[in-house]
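Entry 14. Ran structure prediction on the chain below.
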Amino acid sequence: MVDTLSDQLAHVRKRPGMYIGGTGPGGLTHLVMEVVANSFDQVLGGHATRIAVHLAEDGWVTVDDDGPGISIAAGPDGTSFLERSFTSFRDTATATADGHVPHVHLSVGIGLGPVCALSAELEVEVRSPAGTHRQSFAQGWRSSALERVGPATASGTTVRFLPDPAVFDGAGPSIEGLAEHLRALAHLTPGLTTELSTDADGRRVFGPVDDLRPAYDHEYSILAHDGWRIPDPPLLLHFERDRNVVDLALGWDGSWKPAIRSYGNYVSTVEGGRHEEGIEEGLREVFGRGPMGEVLKGLRALLHVKMLDIEFPGPTRQRLASPAAVWLVADAIADGLPRALREHPELDADLRSRVLTRSRVGGGARRG
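Output, structure tokens:
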């Protein structure tokens, strides 16, 4: 049984794969994204607009944001919230300080404590109206007291950490994997700018965006069959119910198979799930009951659902299992697609002619 802080630290360092999946590039990418997730919570709360990640040649990773700064307020035991964040462990999701919803986990949801435990050194700088404060940690333990080092001209938090070479195999985090994570965050979050830089390759900046169009173009512009896509730009649907949200961009091209790129609470669901099933159900609501093979032909969709009680069947979060997602997405399409198609009468006519074709031939094949 893992009870004391010493026991927890030893367990994390002995079995890092249980927390971050491994000790190679994938595990390190999870480690970085846990720190990014802390900054992203500030974005969702409306308190930050920028998250920057830097990978140095010497192995140090820096994550910086322009939020209000991690709280340095002392708790009943005299330790600051900052210190507790980096030296404590959680078994379940924690509530956000400002109560924003949904509370999301961009990676495996382990929090900052295990990140600190798996770092040879970790330094935190907090900038707030109270000034600039710094504190250092090593392998999960405090190595310096919280210290005010001067005034602050702007707010924010900077976390620098060196993944422990005694734990990791020497390879750095996946640069392209991190780039894709940061691009998706910016593309799915209007107003957010994310950055990724390295000593060797310079800086990449993603966002800010107003809607899903940049994400859709990134996903499908190079895949457009025969060089055309209908419509261009894609149809954009937005739907909210009981604080659950659907954002959907969709269009059709001349290819035979449908393609759907989906996310649940900002996490890429590469194995699909119930929210993707909702697309077919929604199209059936609009175009009539029956197989949707002809209507799905050439569909290019990008779907993001944000749900209060989202369910994933495994720790990798690659498939969405929430049954309610089916009808949330279906209702979003039934509500918004007819209005969107009125702005594109040629596409509307094309899709309805496919329905007639389906009726004449007895229906297309149901999508598996």
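The chain is about 35% helix and 25% strand. Will compare against last week's run tomorrow.
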